[in-house]
Amino acid sequence: MFKPLIFASLLLPLAAQADIKILQPGEEANCQLIKEEVCKTTSKDPVKACDEWHQEEAEEQGADAFLMGTMEQSSHRQPSLTGAKTVKTTRITATYYHCGLAKQAVQKVVDEAVQESAAQVETDSIESRLLRLNSLKKKGLITQEEYGQKRQQILDEL
After folding, report:
1. What is the pLDDT of residues 105-154, one digit of tens each?
2. Rounded Cα distance, 113 and 15, in Å
């Protein structure tokens, strides 16, 4: 039996705990497809088990996001010590993508740092501004080119 996964809202809190983002349908349009995988579990909470499995697998594949696909459930009888028991197996498909989310996160940090820096420009001395700019460059939050451009702007104010 096939069911589209409509439980994305249930997965959002889990996604917040990991570096790998769970995409909503349509968000993958600007991303590069890496791979599609199927999680197979007999867990009592298959959504949680497969979400964790897909998080780990996506990270191993170098993905920064994945899109949950379909869920298939099947049952079969299995011998046990007390006779036979029914085992329910769930398969959840996910497609892994590289969306450049790490670059976006770095750019957000840089933008926030630049905005914060701009707010303090009036009260800071040229020297302290240059030191803060150098610190951003050393931390890898801005490129050499961005550093050079901003440094020249500061020096032009002299």
Report:
1. 667 777 777 777 666 655 568 888 889 899 888 988 899 999 999 999 98
2. 26
CA dist., res. 108 & res. 143, Å (int):
14
> Treating both helix axes as pointing N-terminal to C-terminal, what angle do 101-120 and 126-138 enclose, rounded to 10 degrees?
170
In 3D space, the residue among 68, 108, 118 whose CA is nearest the CA of residue 90 turns out to be 68
Q: Which residues contact 81 (CB under 8 A, 6 or more apart)?
A: none
Beta strands in the chain (DSSP E): 2-4, 21-22, 32-41, 65-80, 83-98
Distance CA 132, CA 125 (A): 11
Give, to the nearest 10 degrees, the angle between helix 8-16 and helix 46-60: 50
Q: Tally DSSP H helices, then E strands, for the chain.
A: 5, 5
Q: Could you identify the residue written with the tokens 């996964």?
A: 5
pTM of the model: 0.52
What six digits make up the tokens of 72? 């298939």
